[in-house]
User: What shape does this take?
Amino acid sequence: MRTYPKVSKWSGTLTVVYPTLANVLNDDVVMKYLEIAGLYVGIGHWRPGAPSRGTYGRFNVEKVGDR
Assistant: This one.
């Protein structure tokens, strides 16, 4: 049996660099991809996008750059 701590509130900083794709990506597109990843994929073991699908690991993006 695996046990994991429950972390209700957490935050992190992520730097995304995409110079070779700058002609097809912009901040709005990257923000949308991150929002989709947080909602449907998540992070950690028992997340929606894991082989053993669960309901944890979702996240939301609150700010991009100086927005």
The chain has one helix and no strands.
